[in-house]
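Exercise 3.2. Students should predict the tertiary structure of the chain below and write it as C-alpha cells, then compare their answer with the key that follows.

Predict this chain's 3D structure.
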Amino acid sequence: MQELSVRHLLGIKDITPQDIQLIFETADNFKDVLNRPIKKVPSLRDITIANVFFENSTRTRLSFELAEKRLSADVINFSSSGSSVKKGETLLDTVNNILAMKVDMIVMRHSSPGAPHFLSKHIPANIVNAGDGTHEHPTQALLDSFSIRERLGEVAGKKVVIIGDILHSRVALSNIFALQKQGAEVMVCGPITLLPKYIQQLGVKVETNVRKALEWCDVANVLRIQLERQQMKYFPSLREYTLYYGIDKKMLDSLNKEIVLMHPGPINRGVELSSDAADSHHSIILNQVENGVAIRMAVLYLLAQRG
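Answer key:
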C-alpha cells in the first residue's frame, strides 16, 4: 500500500504532488462510504483523536469530528475557552496533559502561525493542522482542489483566481501551494491593501479588477473579509468593498463562459457574494462542505497508517 511521505499534515508546503494524489484517491473511496446507508467503517477503531481548538471554529471542527466518528475513532474535544489555558497554562503543557490520556493523534487550530510545527518537534502523536493563524489551512485547500477535480475532471491546466482578503487568509496560502503542485495557474485578486507584499514571489498573477479576474479564470474561490483579524482599516467600508469586489449572479451570467464558484465559508452574504450567486448553478459551495468530510477521513486514515 502507498503511504504519505510525512507523519504530520502541517501544511501543503510540506507534502508532495504524490501525497495529494494519494489523499484524493483515498477520499474517493471514503466518499462512496458516505453515500451508503451505513456511513461508518472500522478503520480507526483503536485510535484516539483529540480535537484541540484554541480558536473558534464551527465548520472545520464539526467536519473533523464527523470524519473521526465515521472512521470509528474515539474522539476527545478540547476548546481553550473553558480550559486551563485561561489560567496561563502553556501550549506544550496543555497538549502533554492530553497525551497523558493516551491520545494517538491531535487535530489542532491555533492563532499563532507555526504552533503545530512547534508541537510536532516535541510530542510523539501525529498532528493535523486545522489552521494556524494567517499561515496555512491544509485540509481546506485539499477539499477545494478535490472539489475542482470532481467538477472539472482535473486540476492541472485550470485557471483559478482567489478573490478577497488574501493578506489575512490561511486558506489562500494553502490553496496557492496546492494548486501549483497540481499544475494549475493561480491568480489573486483584491484591493492592493489586502494583498501581501511578497505575493508575486509565490509565482501567482495579481489583478485588482474583479471583472478581469473572472474573465480570465475557470474557477473563482471567493474569500470573506476577515474583520476579526484586522487590526486597522484596509478599505473605507464594507459597502465600498462590495461595490468594487462583490460578485452577483448578474455579473456571472454576463461572462462569455461558465465558471465555477467556490467559498470556504462562512459566507458574508451581500458582501463578497450575493445570495443569488452563492445559490446559483455556478456554485459548488455545498459540494465543498460534503467533500470536506471525505478529505479529512482520508488524511486521518493515511496518517494513522504512518503511526
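Discussion points: The longest helix spans residues 285-306. The longest strand covers residues 126-132.
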